[in-house]
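User: Fold this, then the next.

Assistant: Folding the first:
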Amino acid sequence: MDSVQDLLVALARRHAFADLEALTDDPEVAAVCEFGQRLLSLDAEDFAVEAPQVPPALRRRARACTMPQTPRHQPRGALDSLRPAYGLLLEVIAIRWHRRELSPMVAALHIASEYLPLLAFEPALGHAGDPARWPAGLSAPGSRFGVIGDRECDHTKAEQSAANRTLRVAVEPAEGWRTYFDRQHSQVAGALATCVADCRNPCTAMEWVQEGSREDLALRSQVALAFADTPLVRLRHAAPVGHGFGVPSPEEVLEAWERSRTVLAKNEVGSAAARDDGFPLPGLPSLFSAVAAVPVAPSTLLEDVTVHLVKLLRAAEG
């Protein structure tokens, strides 16, 4: 390296935002680094925190990936569409892979698996699972969705509780809203997928879905449920003593993904994972796109944060 500035640029290009923030004495660079680190860490609650030093276009793209922190907050961000958030997840997964940070990479895959059913439901709902906009049909006569203790319902007790809560959380105070998203919204995602794809005693909860598209939704939801149970996602739970022990090697991750692709390749949606689309885990963006029924590609949000940082550093050097 010819200079300290070259070192800082190299850190920016490696997306080492926390390291760069610790070394810089430029307040603007530090603020952009903090913004980038929130994105890389998937600290979605704070994506939308005001950061005037960050270009507005980058802040807008980050806000599209965040959950609203109150029932009436506008814009609705990831409750309008999960596609920007999944683009960011794919970009984070790729960066973590290239940096060989496999524990946070596996954690990002786990997050993707939890909400994947809502990505499947988005075309039918017209949104990404916003509790303020659930279709009335979920609570139609004869529906067991959210009925706690109904033994005919295939939902677990935790899913029944989460489904019951989601039907009323939009009128709760902001604190209750945030607690619901912290603890129960991902269970609602799984409950919806079970309703349409895996229920042994169907009720009226899914009759609001147009009959012509219900079969397609069921197939995509079935694949979303299957992804959550693949060897790749189960890597997060493979440690003998809690999470954080027994970090997988790159070879173990690739081997688990190959086994997962075989498991998923039982229908035309799951077989999308077999495509070689140039991603570090080949076929993962294609799988998410097949489940979403629209293209979902890795975002360039973190790369664009890096480009902006390099410009700031070069300008300071000049």
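Now the next one, as you asked:
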Amino acid sequence: MTREPYPVRAAGLPERITIHEVGPRDGLQNESVIVPVEVKAEFIARLAAAGHRVIEATSFVHPKWVPQLADASQLLESMERVPGVRYPVLVPNDRGLDRALEHGVEEIAVFASATETFAARNLNRTLESQFEMFEPVIARALAHGLRVRAYVSMCFGDPWEGPTPIGQVVSVGRRLLDLGCFELSLGDTVGVGTPGHVAALIEAFGGPAGLAVHFHDTYGQALANTLAALREGVTVVDASTGGIGGCPYAESATGNLATEDLVWMLHGLGVETGLDLASLVETSTWLAARLGRPSPSRVVQALGGTPPAGPADRATTPAPGQGTTADNVKE
């Protein structure tokens, strides 16, 4: 069994990229079971040991709407923080920022929508009024010396509205960057993007400066779209170890781009990631046993296999219902 790809350096690609690991937050928030906090802490520790330098740890969204992350405070108090590793957390509003500051968080992320319908369903706001919610959060976070990242969802298409106009995405994204966000993650929330669309969107922003990409693999396009973004000069890619996750507020969204699949492709292209593929596969196999289901990552399936979880290994507490999507950010 081949354990690593044969590296052939491809022209026109960055020499090194940063993988923004979202598994502990965006991955676990969409699981049907509540994962114990000690498992989450070990998951994060394993990711750092595998070489990750950016690990999105959790979210301060109200636990009524994302019960899988209700233990955010407990997790931040218990997990080991490795020097040189960034541990951003997602915050939806001022109360979420209060909690982040209480725990000494140094980096946060806010999330916006590129479409009216998703803004209404996910944020209970209009496309315009959503800024009233996170403008003060960004300003206060910056005043406290925090770095602020911004996510924009539905950048390529919306299940209710269809394809998202490129100019609309640029308008929302530019506004977030102008508010002081150091990085803007362009999210293909339902996985409908294609490489040409990716290139056109990045070009519409005037180039890759300040941009990251976040692809879901609903239509099998995540790796192709990532390669298109890299060819445009993007050097930050979001991914989830084991390919876990999705979006609980968009039913057509399947799992995130699997970190292992991304690393296999990048190492084959001669692009450095700083990550140890074998450690990632081992971590995904370990986590899959605790989730009670196989990893959807093709690389994990090829290299690691996923043994069925035993009763003692499963996280067995059923998650409560998600409630209405429109109110998920309320505190």
